[in-house]
Amino acid sequence: MRLFVLVLSGMAACSTKEPPTEGRAASPATATKAPRCVDDTNKRMSVGKLSGCLLAAEWTAGNLTCKRDHMLDVYPDGALKRCSLLSPTDLGGFRCVETTELYEDGKFKRCKLAAAKTVNDIYVRAGDWVTVYKSGAIKRVEFSSGAGKLKGLLCKGLFNFLHENGHLKKCEIAEATKIDGQDVTAGTLACFDDRGKRVSDCKLLTWEMLD
Length: 211
Description:
Elements: H1 2-15, E1 44-46, E2 49-54, E3 59-61, E4 64-66, E5 71-74, E6 80-84, E7 89-91, E8 94-102, E9 108-113, E10 117-119, E11 122-124, E12 129-132, E13 138-150, E14 153-162, E15 168-172, E16 177-179, E17 182-184, E18 189-192, E19 198-199
Antiparallel strand pairs: 1-2, 2-5, 3-4, 5-6, 6-8, 7-8, 8-9, 9-12, 10-11, 12-13, 13-14, 14-15, 15-18, 16-17, 18-19
């Protein structure tokens, strides 16, 4: 009987074991101590709270460590918004390096890739930048190491976006091609609705809108 109870206890312990948290940002990515900032013009305050600064020392928030001598941005509650990672880190299914950004709830938002990755037939290389929706679906791909394929089109540059349902939203065409039977020249910004149909309203986004 005693052996039976021990076996049941062991099974219960296994069933309640928490999943590993390695490679995931805390939610939100908060720190146990305030960052040490260089007291210069890079230091920004908002309503009496720190919003950004140049780090005078490494700073850890959740499982992320930010480099010294690089810019840090935080949300009003002190949670990490953006910083340059000390070392490659797994976030949102991607291997991230250098500048990385999180949403307010601590979910991964944007980073430069340290390793190539394929997500739902979208291939991004090491050195390219990826932004995701809060759902984890890819929102934007910045091809920094040459053109790449998105939904059958060869795209280039920074202004390549997808709808949350996976359909291509905007592509900077890298080479002459045909879309819906029409000739499209290289450099054209081609835009599509969330059903995959091409639309004519395709204004170049400003840097302020690139989120």
